[in-house]
Amino acid sequence: MKKIFSFFVFNFLLFNFIFSYSQTTNFYRYQIQFTDKNNNSFFISQPHEYLSAKAIERREKQNIIIDTLDLPVTISYIDSVKSTGVSVLYSSKWLNSVTVLTADSLALIKINSFPFVKSVSPLGKIASPQNHIITSLNSQFKTECDPDNYYGFAFDQINQVHGQSLHNKGFKGNGMLIAYLDAGFHNVDLISAFDSLRNRNGIIATHDFITANDSVFDDDNHGTYCLSIVAGNIPGYYVGTAPNADFVLLRTEYAPTEYPIEEINWAAGAEFADSIGADVITSSLGYSVFDDTSFNHTFYDMDGQKTPSSIAAHIASTKGIIVCNSAGNSGSDSTWRFITAPSDADNILTIGAIDSANNYAMFSGHGPTFDGRIKPDVVGRGESTWFIDTNFGTVREGNGTSFSCPLIAGLVACLWQSHPNKTNWQIMDAIRGSASKYSNPDNNIGYGIPNFAYADLLLSGFNEQSLLSTDSIIIYPTVFSDEIKFNLKSKISEEVFIQFIDMSGRLIHELCSFASNGFNELAINTTKLSAGVYMLKITTSRGLYFEKVIKN
Q1: Would residue 144 be called left, alpha or beta, if left means φ above 0 and alpha means ψ between -120 and 50 degrees?
Q2: Burial, 426: exposed, middle or buried (Cβ in 10 Å; 0-12, 13-18, 19+)?
Q3: Is 52 left (phi over 0), alpha (psi -120 to 50) or beta?
Q4: Phi-psi region for residue 90, left (φ > 0), alpha (ψ -120 to 50) or beta?
Q5: N- to C-terminal Cα distance for the chain?
Q6: 354 and 407 in contact (C-beta within 8 Å)?
Q7: Residue 33 bridge partners (DSSP)
Q8: What whole-number distance in Å separates Cα of residue 89 and Cα of residue 206?
Q9: Confidence class of residue 454 from pLDDT cuts 50, 70 and 90?
């Protein structure tokens, strides 16, 4: 009797809450969470029925098991929800829920009575559709080409993180699939900077979670700006960070308003990206405060485990995806200066912003997370960043971590292309390890400015001396002027190859020396070598050795 009484009291309170809430909204969206995935029509042993071949391949390459999170929501549960007359918009297998549209309070009461329903939660309203155009842009337009500069206006922001070193080796994103979660991609189907992308059918899928259709080219401009930073491709005018990658364009954000429904959309978009086989998710979105303040997050929520978008971002990382999310633009806000969800998620790359002089951009969201983890992870150009405008494809500048995030995400894809057998965690660790403040990170720029040429070296064996141990070779001095020496123990007589590689990944100087069986002391004349920081790469029959050295 007590259980029945509590049930009726709970439903009475739910009814009053839903009724009072629905009086102030235009459309009413709710999340229905389920208790389990029992009686499921799909099986873990048959993943090809609900995951693409590319998604399965990603898991297999990284030794990631298929589990219940991969299983779709139980169909009979969804059918029961539909039977009440509500409209089911989409399901979320990771959150084990469906999102519904209804104004019928009694239907929600009935849904809550189902034994397999865990909770019924309001998600806020979506107002009448309208196009929303970002306004935080500098006014200057640029249209001229520079035939001597392949990257055109994008050169400085790519060079700042040594991204061109990957391109010079032929890694421009070929075969990599990048998923964009954004507010719309206005005119991407028309702008000339995306001609090569369209001509090679590089946009493999689109979906709009706001309107439940596949049209994403007639909405907000924000996604277009962000996409251009990666996919723009007009040599001499503007070339992005991964111009040869493929893309999935997903509209999860309704720009005119801010309600929790968009976090559930974000989770659904991340699941879509996973299922279709995306390697990288880039999202210049964040959630902290909402139009209805009763939904507001607090800093306490920024531990990566409480908000729906952060939970989904972490799950995406466990499925082998690299999630890049902007740190947000609240760094100088007196009420909320922190990163926003899902940037607090564990095992993702949170991207902050710097200016052209490598200085922290004051608007960039601060860390740490509530549980004390360093955030952001790394930074890219987010102040005076060049991108393609929707106005006839001209180029202009803008500010925001919305721009630094895709800048880095595109190069993440190129780096992973160059090391396809590495896991997502190994790629992320190399990027952090290459950054300017790796040894002393802070909560403004995290581990600092990444160096993708250096990250490439790290993944190629730098500091991985399993074949040539440190007791076999000693470099001295590591800070030198006209000469550098090394002691080498060799078990055979052999040639030793020595290369000096600068921090942009270019081979500057190489030579060959001879080592005899036993102990060798070799000296290298460096008078012709310019001052700077180098990676010294030594190759013997036993393997590789790298050492970071400085020429005065």
Answers
A1: beta
A2: middle
A3: beta
A4: beta
A5: 84
A6: no
A7: 97, 119
A8: 16
A9: confident
How far apart are alpha carbons 59 and 42 in whole angstroms?
18
Mean pLDDT of the chain: 88
The three-class DSSP label of residue 426 is helix
DSSP β-ladder status, 246-251 and 203-208: parallel
Q: Are 114 and 80 in contact (CB under 8 A)?
A: yes
pLDDT at position 78 is 98
Positive or negative torsion for Cα 387, 388, 390, 394: positive
Which pair of structure tokens corresponds to residue 151? 């990257």
Q: Which two tokens stand for residue 4?
A: 């029945």
CA-CA distance, 365 to 337, in Å (whole number)? 6
How do beta strands 280-283 and 322-326 pair? parallel
CB 401 within 8 A of CB 362: no
**Helix 261-276 × helix 53-61 angle, to 10°:** 80
- Tokens 């729906």 sit on residue: 308
Helix axes 424-433, 401-418, angle to 10 degrees: 120
Flag whether pLDDT at 465 surpasses 60: no
H or E element that contains 507: strand 507-515
Q: What's the token pair of residue 376? A: 């952001």
Radius of gyration of the CA atoms of the chain, in A: 26
CA dihedral sign of residues 328, 333, 338, 342: negative
* Per-residue model confidence as pLDDT tens digits over 18-39: 444 444 344 589 999 999 999 9
Beta bridge partners of 524: 484
Structure tokens at 244: 């040869």
Q: Check residue 108 and give left, alpha or beta (phi > 0: left; psi -120 to 50: alpha).
A: alpha
DSSP conformation letters of 110-139: HHHHSTTEEEEEEEE---S--------EEE
pLDDT confidence tier of residue 391, bands split at 50, 70 and 90: confident
The CA distance from 354 to 430, in Å, is 20
C-alpha 271/C-alpha 72 separation (Å) is: 10
Select the highest-mean-pLDDT range: 92-101, 430-439, 498-507. 92-101
Question: Residues 67-85: pLDDT tens digits?
Answer: 999 999 999 999 999 999 9
Helix (H) or strand (E) holding 31: strand 29-34
Domains and CATH numbers, the chain: 2-37+73-124 (3.30.70.80), 155-460 (3.40.50.200), 470-551 (2.60.40.1930)
C-beta separation of 330 from 367 below 8 A: no
